[in-house]
Amino acid sequence: MKKAVCPGSFDPITNGHIDIIKRAAELFDEVTVLVVTNPDKKCVFSPEERCSLIEKAIEGIENVKVDSFSGLLADYVKQNGMSAIVKGIRSSSDFEYEFQMALANRSLAPNAETVFITADPQNMYVSSSLIRQIAGFGGDVSDFVPKNIVLEIEKRLK
Ligand code: PNS
Hints:
This protein has helices at 15-27, 47-57, 73-79, 92-108, 128-136, 150-157, and strands at 3-8, 30-36, 64-69, 84-89, 113-118. By secondary structure, the protein is of the alpha/beta class. A five-stranded parallel beta sheet has the order 3-2-1-4-5, sandwiched between helices. Strand 1, helix 1 (15-27) and strand 2 form a beta-alpha-beta unit. The protein starts with a strand and ends with a helix. The structure holds 4'-phosphopantetheine (PNS). Residues 7-9, 36-38, 41, 72-74, 101, 104-105 line the site of 4'-phosphopantetheine.
């Protein structure tokens, strides 16, 4: 059984994340979407809120589950027998940042491969910070996040 983890801040989850998660679910037997702490970011949504939004956003995708973890991603990967860490790449700046983490994770958890999936062109400019900014000013985010969590995100960020 090949298990993969899709780690991230997901503050909040976007259509770009969902696309990567769905494509990872085609490649692996089981995919865990992992809400994990990024020490460089101060998140707006709590880990519980982010997990709850993800649960709703992935409804109907059979082999995907949600978890949260506070610690080194490499430790989670080893503790849970993950074969791969899946990351989405939108741009060359994403790649530079992710490449460094991939090399560090390879050293810390040599049994797991980092797999990069290129973003769908229509999601290349979509980011959690864009969602926070649009919804924060009362804008419509329905083009950028799954339909069944639009209202919850807009209400929370307004
Ligand atoms: O969505 P993000 O914020 O770009 O995701 C980055 C994240 C959370 C995956 C990364 O910061 C991470 O792996 N954090 C856990 C702590 C850790 O393992 N840091 C070392 C990474 S090599």
